[in-house]
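Supplementary Note 3. Input sequence used for the single-chain structure prediction.
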Amino acid sequence: MPATPPNPEFGSVDDVVERFAAHGYIADRRLATTVFLQTRLDKPVLLEGPAGVGKTELAKTLAAATGRRLLRLQCYEGQDESRALYEWDYGKQLLYTQMLRNKIGDLTADAPDLASAVRRIEEQDSVFFSDRFLAPRPLLDAVRGEQPAVLLIDEVDRADEALEAVLLECLAEYQVSVPEIGTYTAKIPPYVVLTSNNTRDLSAALKRRCLHLFLDYPDAERELEIVRTKDTGLPEAAARRLVEVVRGLRELQLRKNPSISETVDWARTLAVLGVDELDPAVLADTANVVLKYERDLHRALDVLPRLVDPNRTVPEPGHHHDLHGHHHGHHHDGHGPHDGHPHGPGHGQPDEIDGREVRAAKDRQGRHDEGYYGAPGPGPTHRPTPGAGQGARSFAAFGRRRTD
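The predicted structure, written as discrete structure tokens, is reproduced below.
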């Protein structure tokens, strides 16, 4: 008998919120509704949005909250179906062939000719192409496994379109066909979570089989709540200010925006250093925790003083490195004023950071959509204003349709 997970079913949307919170995942109403419907409708859910907003973590939390085992298929360019579905264990087949060669000799000993011997061996093909020699990969393991599972297909947008076609049968009927054996159909359908960072458009056939949710960066209060749940050790006032600083950095159109997990890492870093009150110098010394590209770091140093204090006067351009005690005004890495990417408000962008007005605009939902491939823009692809919370776009079941 297959093992039954503890509390496998969610009783309601509120139950999803509570059980996710018990495992450290703060879910808003829209996200919790999507998860609840997924478990009741037996449909996969496709999570799209920028990196670092909790898409992968949702699948891990779903597995923990329902007591299911987690199976993860990490997608990458050039991935073939054998890495996703199954492989034949050729080494084991060869070993068995060597062990059974005497039996093969007995089988063909009285064969009148070579053709008859070959036919007798062919009749035994099924012995070597059976479950015994099948090495299941995540998709097949999720379908034929005896224990309930959560199948995470991570960063599906990185895989080739050919792998999308392989996924269709599995996502629609929860079955996998093996030509040499037959078709496996799941006795206990897995909960399937697909994630995408929107590096390319996914096929309409794949999206049609899934519930859809777009995860954006959360608003300030929800991100602060996430930081609180992680027990970083940073005082409440400093944590609140840090969240505002991170949100200000995300408005700079950096090459890589700070993720939620990096916000938590920064809070823990400051707590280890014994910081009780934020100041530009200590943030500049530790900004590499959330900024992983040198140009991003240089741009951030320009605006950190004003992000900490919106009413503060920013030093003249070229002197932002005073935060580190340096007084030179040259540009690093060849990224001077002629590279088309000025570093801050002193380099031809007086409106990039505008004190309280920009801080108030940080709660505008969908503000991060513009930088992603296929994101909606003006005209016929403009989407209606969504409600509050993490999800900036819901799935088709709520009557909203993504047209990109």
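The CA atoms of residues 256 and 363 lie 20 Å apart. DSSP finds 17 helices and ten strands in the chain.
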